[in-house]
Amino acid sequence: MSAISWYVNRLRAMSPREVLWRLGQKRMQYSERKYCRKPQRVDHVVFNPRLEHLRFDSSKLGVNTKKDGHVFGNSIPLLGGYEYKKYKRQWHAGFQTPNEWERIFSYQLDYKGRDDIGDARTNWELNRHFQFAILAKNYYYSGDEKWADELQMLYEDWNDNNPYLIGISWTSVMELAIRSISWCFSLAYLQLSGKHQDLQQHLATGILNMTDAIDRHHSRFSSANNHLIVEAASMAIAGYAFDHTPWKDKGMKILDSEMPKQNYPDGVNKEMSLHYQLFVMEAYALVAHIMVANGDNVPHVWKTYLTAMCEFVCNSTDSHGAIMEFGDDDEGKILDLEGVGSEHADAVMQLCSFVTGISYPLFSRVSETTRCLLGEGYEKTLARMPSYDHHQSRCFKEGGYSFLRSDDNKTLIGIDHAPLGFGSIAAHGHADTLSFQLMEDGEMLLADPGTYIYHSDLNARNHFRKTINHNTLCIDGHDQSEMLGAFLWGKKANCKLLHFQFSEQEDIVEAEHDGYLPTLHRRRFTWNKIAKTLRIDDTISSPRNWTLSFVVGSNCQIEKSEGNYLVRGNKSRCMICLPKDSEPEITTIDFSECYGVKSSTYVLRAHGNATSFSTTITII
To answer: 143: phi > 0 → left, psi -120 to 50 → alpha, else beta; which?
Structure first.
């Protein structure tokens, strides 16, 4: 697709008000080029004179001051498996290529589809500065100057090489927001130590300038998804830390407004991505923690929605703590005080427990991030909380997902009958309506192909979103929804839940979608939880050529067995009986278990043209 076509399609997704707002943003950005005529560090001086009087107060962030029981990591995980020690000062690295991002005015830097350089999202992970907060935390809790020396070195190197509004690290407002939060916690630990005054002052100046930019440029209209929530959270956090009411009030107002806009009452985030749901939950939980630390009450609506959202995460999780995800997953997070070895979902759910007063049985230990905010004794507090029971099948009819379980709780089946995604662009959805995944005893037997990459290799980006590469029905080789860009959809499939019924012996979920109009596709899942047999009945309203796909987990093998197909994991197996008269084939497709890493896996496909047919999958 040409750049002109993309711009035309993107404009079609905007309202007239949004077009006017974006033109205003362009004018503002043009005026900000004055900061680039003579490049200057973001911590050089407070650019907005009205903010010069503000002073940072570490006590406002609610940091745990007890120094026992902490983990002292010295690196952060980079996306794509790149080695932190090798790249820790390569702030402009392309990662996927040896080339670097141009050091030009950030609003003129085209970072999308840059196969000549790499994936911007991979680079942004390094520039979010989780390592800064970790080093400052290590310094405060240990008293060892080596951590402060490393922080000082990295901080100076970054600021010398990333002048304000120049380069890849300034291209996204949400990246400023996450970096600002990392700097806030870095500054809090340094201030608690009572040392390194110059570095403290520089950090404070940088936070003020970044938050001022976020205030002017935060996401709106069709771009106001999880980005807006993170940006609002950063304004609220800086507002508390600097006792600046305009930022605090604006951030809180946005968060209050966006909670019901971006989430269904039953706990499903409208992005249709469990990863982004956890991302959003983290933003609210961090701000809620700071509110409590300052003696403010957490809004009742936050508690209500976070309770429901935690329940959805739990129901997406099998008995071994493995999470079943649909949609995009770029492994993003907002605060990491541990680095390598940290588990993002654990930290988020533990912070949410603090808000909801309910323990969620997904984790084996209290995360370092939780311990740094809530204290060593929080483990005992969690143990005293009532625990949420997620051992029953559950249908989230508003959000559009169902999770079916076996009596022995070893089997988890996830079914997608959800909308494509949030808003007019549905940025993070996949064309996977009526797809499903199957986990048995901690192993993914039938899987989602993953995400892989965002901002480069568009063919790969599309591959991981295509209908044919998900466990659903594809008609005439077409996608259910129309891809117009890496984060832009045109025609969208609409899905309707027709019926669900759960009993002690059998669960039924039935839904249909219109992604192949004039043909409708209806699918009925019948799960016998005693026999551990899943029957899938597909019906299409007119004769068409179709393909059924069954993507096999990356650690599994598949083989033909007595006319059927055996999927074999390390300790679990299932047998697939395909529709009568269909033409089967086993092939391979690209598969991505984590962002930026691509491998391959097997896929079983069945081709046919009947209007009604059934597949049976039995756990054996």
So the answer is: left
The answer to whether 355 and 298 have CB atoms below 8 angstroms apart is yes
Q: How many whole angstroms separate alpha carbon 187 and alpha carbon 142?
A: 16
Q: For 549, list phi and psi in degrees, rounded to 5.
A: -120, 145
Q: Does an H or E element contain 305, and which?
A: helix 300-315
Residue whose structure tokens are 């059998």:
506
Query: For residue 110, what pLDDT is reported?
Result: 95
Cis peptide before 246 (omega within 30 of 0): no
Nearest CA-CA partner of 191 in 335, 314, 55: 55
* Residues forming a β-bridge with 589: 601
Question: Across residues 70-87, what is the average pLDDT?
Answer: 96
The candidate with the shortest Cα–Cα distance to 59, out of 302, 325, 295, is 295
Q: How far is CA 144 from the centre of its chain?
A: 34
Judging by DSSP bridges, how do beta strands 533-540 and 488-489 pair with one another? unpaired
pTM to 2 decimal places: 0.96
Task: Name the residue type at position 572.
Answer: S
| Three-state helix/strand/coil letters over 550-592 | EEECCCCEEEEECCEEEEECCCCEEEEECCCCCEEEEEEEEEE
Q: Smallest Cα–Cα separation from 529: which of 408, 434, 395? A: 408
| Total residue count of the chain as it appears in this document | 620
User: Using CB atoms within 10 A of its CB, is residue 565 exposed (0-12), middle (13-18) or buried (19+)?
Assistant: buried
H helices present in 43-172, as ranges: 84-87, 120-127, 130-142, 145-161
Helix or strand or coil: residue 105? strand
Tokens of 426: 């549905």
Q: What is the residue-averaged pLDDT of the chain? A: 95
Confirm if 185 and 137 have CB atoms less than 8 A apart.
yes
503's CB contacts (< 8 A; 6+ apart) are none
Can you say how many angstroms the Cα of residue 18 is from the centroid of all Cα atoms in its chain?
A: 25
E strands in 492-563: 495-502, 506-516, 519-528, 533-540, 546-551, 557-561
pLDDT tens digits for range 379-431: 888 888 999 998 899 999 999 999 999 999 999 999 999 999 999 999 999 99
The count of C-alpha atoms lying within 13 angstroms of the C-alpha of 492, restricted to the half-sphere facing its C-beta, is: 19
Q: What is the pLDDT of residue 30?
A: 85
Q: Which two tokens stand for residue 122?
A: 């991979």
Using DSSP, state whether 17 is helix, strand or coil. Answer: helix
Dihedral, CA of residue 513, residue 554, residue 595 and residue 341, to nearest 10: 130
Contact between residue 123 and residue 116 where contact means Cβ atoms under 8 Å apart? no
Q: How many CA atoms lie within 13 A of 64 on its CB side?
A: 20
- Output phi, psi for 385, to 5 deg: -75, 150
What are the structure tokens assigned to 40, written together? 């200057």
- Which residues neighbour 505 within 8 Å (Cβ) at sequence distance 6 or greater? 528, 529, 530
Q: Are 154 and 135 in contact (CB under 8 A)?
A: yes
Contact of 377 with 388, CB cutoff 8 Å: no
Of the candidates 293, 231, 292, 284, which has an alpha carbon nearest to the alpha carbon of residue 259? 284
C-alpha separations of 557 from 294, 403, 574 in Å: 54, 25, 11
What residues does 583 pair with on adjacent strands? 607
